[in-house]
Amino acid sequence: MQEQKLIPLGLLCEQYRLELSFFEELGEIGLIEFTVYKGSKHLHQDALHQMEKILRIHRELHVNLEGVDVVMNILERQEQLRQELIRVQNRLRRFEEDL
């Protein structure tokens, strides 16, 4: 695993001015998945956008972590439905072109 793609949890605490327990709770709820590397927890850089979205919902909207979990599930479902709608529209477009 490439070390440069992992962000130490301690660095995240400093960067976002949050306690370690906050990030641990995110992991326990299942909102963020951490990787253990050299004995400490790290966040993969690909998950950084997701983590920042969670932080914005939590901080700016004052939503507790259980509420953030609900919001993230709703957003994920919305994206799935959007993708499904695009697929259906494309199929319909092909059908209309055949007429």
Brief overview:
The protein has 99 residues and is mainly alpha-helical. The chain is 66% helix and 11% strand. It has a single domain, classed as Multidrug-efflux Transporter Regulator, Chain: A, Domain 2, CATH 1.10.1660.
Describe the structure.
With 99 residues, the protein is mainly alpha-helical. The protein has a single domain (3-98), classed as Multidrug-efflux Transporter Regulator, Chain: A, Domain 2. The protein is 66% helix and 11% strand. It contains 4 helices and 3 strands, in the order βααββαα. The protein has helices at 9-16, 20-29, 48-60, 65-98, and strands spanning 6-8, 35-37, 40-44. β2 (35-37) and β3 form a beta hairpin. The protein starts with 5 loop residues before the first strand and ends with a helix. The model has no long low-confidence stretch (mean pLDDT 93).
Q: How are the secondary structure elements laid out?
A:
Elements: E1 6-8, H1 9-16, H2 20-29, E2 35-37, E3 40-44, H3 48-60, H4 65-98
Antiparallel strand pairs: 1-3, 2-3
Can you count the helices?
Answer: 4
Q: H/E element string? A: EHHEEHH
Task: Specify the overall morphology.
Answer: elongated
The low-confidence runs, each spanning 5 or more residues with pLDDT under 50, are none
Derived from helix and strand composition plus strand pairing, the structural class reads mainly alpha
Distance from N terminus to C terminus (CA atoms, Å) equals 53 Å
| CATH architecture term | Orthogonal Bundle
Lateral strand order in the biggest sheet: 1-3-2
The number of distinct β-strands equals: 3
CATH topology: Multidrug-efflux Transporter Regulator, Chain: A, Domain 2
Fraction in helix: 55-70%
Strand content: 5-15%
Gyration radius, to the nearest Å?
A: 19 Å
How many strands, which pairing sense, and closed or not: the largest β-sheet? 3 strands, antiparallel
Q: What is the average per-residue confidence, as pLDDT, rounded to a whole number? A: 93
CATH class reads Mainly Alpha
Count of discrete structural domains: 1
